């Protein structure tokens, strides 16, 4: 991925704008085909638009985390993630994943699940809703491990909320502390659920934890053996797999929440797909313009948002929390971290040079 500091906003979001126009037109046509009225067309058009905004608000922190990981990857693997990755994100998580959930839950094949989505969307949505608990437990656990691993790092010496982050960095010397924290939280929420729900939550959470640990082990193995790999694969495959699973975890909440607006799988795929294109564009812009290097607390805000999202996914197994709260909460944290970064830059006279490195021993409460 070539750096281009002079690239215009349209240059970064050009494809996203094109996909937006095409998606909204296609969504409107689906609405017209289903209802045969202008009202149906307008409703489908509006839902696609709302879903796109929902996806962007829920996934802005995902773009920041992706950018942080991408800057360590080779250009070849950066390109693969931004091409193959977006195909997996849009078609895999927005279409194949819901179909797979319904196929497994209803004990039918994927083709029958697709026909169910088209012919009986109410039943399809009900099956997806029933699958929310294990999905929330799995995704919440994976995301919580992502967030805690960032803060429980004894080498981390740039802190935003200093009294919290310094303490977590010190406790990072205790081996496996983040795993113990997650397991304690899992046991607490398991105790709050009854019967089969408690068992399902516990099993799904353990699978989420094991998935994170397996990805970490695989990444470490690939990094350790990178000298034996081809030049195209060095430093990239482990990070690619990590980002794909991370993207999937971020997508769980949006896919399930979308059924609150519409039960039509295809409108959901269009709306969330539009949003995914903007997340991809934001990721590229963050990497090429060195935004994370200039705004020192922006990454912190994203990981705090991840932790809050993981807790919300846990709480959603007990009660419904509107998706707008989830999205606005994460966006607010990122916005505050951005303002803190700007204030730091003004106080320390930091310019807009992405190559400028901040002193690593400073911290702001």
UniProtKB/TrEMBL annotation:
Q: Please tell me whether the keyword Cell membrane is annotated for this protein.
A: no
Entry keywords, A to Z: Membrane, Transmembrane, Transmembrane helix
Membrane-spanning intervals of the chain:
12-32, 38-60, 81-106, 131-152, 172-193, 205-224, 231-250, 256-279, 300-318, 324-342
Question: Record's superkingdom?
Answer: Bacteria
**Keyword Nucleotide-binding among record annotations:** no
Q: What is this protein called?
A: DUF475 domain-containing protein
